[in-house]
Each structure stands twice: as structure tokens, then as C-alpha cells.
């Protein structure tokens, strides 16, 4: 089983950028934790971060045959990228959208996710642990779906 985690723009600055909103944990720490949880649960976890919309879309295209599911934190692209939405639809894999902060409690322009209706679920406002819960939920979903 393989799950790919995509981190969008500015997430490479986690731990430094607006820690009161995003926390002090770094992206490397999040990725390391996800890989470790995956190993414990017999799942290969691959992570990718880009500040470029096209790179995120290309990563989805390139991994679509190798992966079973995705965890997506599109960051600012959540609210703006029809192209990323179309790519998620095109790869046709289960996906969970994750946000460290509660986007509903922030500026009005962050309240609308262009991905919300094309992913199986969303976790937001729970910090770095949201990624861990998304990973566990996807693994459970894949195991249940395969044996149903």
C-alpha cells in the first residue's frame, strides 16, 4: 500500500512562518512522522512539497499508477486552483484534504475550498496531527475497501 502526501506553497516554511497560526513543527518533522506511522502500519508514505501549482499537478499525474491514495494540503491553491481540482479528479484516487489551521475561522476568501467536493474528506484546524489522522483514515479506508 502506498499513500502520497502533497504539500502546497509556503509549507516549506513551517515552524518559521506565522507559528501562531501554523504551529512550530517543521515540514520535515511532519514528513518523518508520517513515514514512521506508515511503516508501523505497512504502508509506504511518499511526500512532496512545491510552491508551484504545475509541479503539484505533475506529481499527481506521475504517481497516479503507483499510489493508492493522497493526502493533500494545497495551502493557498485550495481557494484558487481549478487546475489542481481537475488533476485530483483525473487521477481518480481517494484523497483527504488537510489544513493545519481552521480555514473557516480565517479570512472570508479562505472559506471556499475548490477541492472539498472532490475529496473523500477534510481535516482542518488540528495542526500537524491532522496529517496523521488523515493517514490513518486512508489506510483504514483502503484496507476496508479492498476486503469488502
Descriptive report:
This protein has 148 residues and is α/β, with parallel strands linked by helices. The chain has one domain (2-147): 3-Layer(aba) Sandwich (Rossmann fold), CATH 3.40.50.9100. It is built from 5 helices and 5 strands; from the N terminus they run E-H-H-E-H-E-H-E-E-H. The protein has a 5-stranded parallel β-sheet with strand order 2-1-3-4-5, with helices on both faces. Strand 3, helix 4 (82-91) and strand 4 (95-99) form a beta-alpha-beta unit. The model has no long low-confidence stretch (mean pLDDT 92).
Quick recap:
The protein is 39% helix and 18% strand. The protein is α/β, with parallel strands linked by helices and 148 residues long.
As residue ranges, the low-confidence spans are none
Based on Cα principal axes, name the global outline. globular
Query: Approximately how much beta-strand content do the residues carry?
Result: 15-25%
The overall pLDDT, averaged over residues, is 92
Report the sheet with the most strands, covering strand number, pairing sense and barrel closure: 5 strands, parallel
Q: Which CATH-level-2 architecture?
A: 3-Layer(aba) Sandwich
**Number of continuous helical runs:** 5
Rg value? 14 Å
Q: Distance N terminus to C terminus?
A: 16 Å
CATH fold topology: Rossmann fold
Main-sheet strand order equals: 2-1-3-4-5
Overall structural domain count: 1
CATH homology superfamily name: Dehydroquinase, class II
CATH domain class name: Alpha Beta
Give the strand tally: 5
Proportion in helices = 25-40%
Q: Which structural class do the helices and strands define?
A: alpha/beta
Provide the succession of SSEs.
Answer: EHHEHEHEEH
